[in-house]
Description:
By secondary structure, this protein is α/β, with parallel strands linked by helices. Strands 3-2-1-4-7-8-10 form a 7-stranded mixed β-sheet, with helices on both faces. The protein has 2 domains: 6-24 and 261-313; 32-253, Rossmann fold (3-Layer(aba) Sandwich), CATH 3.40.50. Helix 2 runs parallel beside helix 6. The protein is built from 10 helices and 11 strands.
Amino acid sequence: MIRNTRGLWCATLALAGALTVPLPRAVAAQQTHALVITGLGGEATYRDAFFGAAVLLHDVAREKWNVADSSLIVLTENPSRDSKRFNGKSTKQEVGNAFLALSRRVKAGDVLFVFLHGHGSGNGNESAVNLSGPDPTAADYATWLSGFAQQTVVFVNAASASGDFNRILAGPRRVILTSTKSSVERNDTRFATYFVRGLSSGEADADKDGKVSVLEAFSFAEREVAKEYEADKRMLTEHAVLSDSTLAATIAFGGAAVPADPRVAALVAERQALESQVAALRARKDSMSASAYESELERLLVAIAEKTQAIRAAGAKP
């Protein structure tokens, strides 16, 4: 039986049009929570690089993303180096405590941003980033993330040999970024430098809407890394991976004003919930029949387009 795809095609076009209009961020409905973890540096060059990334992410989370102090946790090798910004030492115990603390603060629909950086090693479920004491594995992070099933999770592993994290942490409502495509790419990476720069400056804001989406930051970092290798006449030894570009394009940090009209805030929150359902549906695609998948996708896309139209009708400005 051949399915009539006209409705799906029209809905997709409507959604494409809707996504070109930047929407105000409904902070009342969706809060961002951030956990930054940097590992052992070893040489001074790496210690300084990890320190710099942690400082920049702390500042951008507070000043541009409006993350509350109680929802911002930064763990580093040497927290005494900046006790005003850093919350504690990056150990397996403290990382677990941080995930537990944030799991008690989040609400359904919130965003959890996790940034992990350091010297990594790849070995499937045992892949890790070197911290003080025992190293938490990719399997440990998967367990900790299970407490955020109702949130959208952005997990960045910017360490070397980080590629296995993508498969192990994959799931609905999750965007997983790794600085390498596999565990074989073991050389120190440059991805973190440019990804953090993209988040903390306006350079990655491709559509100039005052916000930086996860996709924009990733694309910026990918381009800049390639430029650096080319300028140095070196073969590219790191290939960053983004698990879900569609969802990543909908997650943006900073910039937008809170809608004054509570009706608009509610509509935006409902639209974000529908977008999360699309991401969850895509994750289940392989376990569904083609007709069931297309039917549900069409329903969600039409609903998203209708919410966008309602937001415009309520007077929301881009």
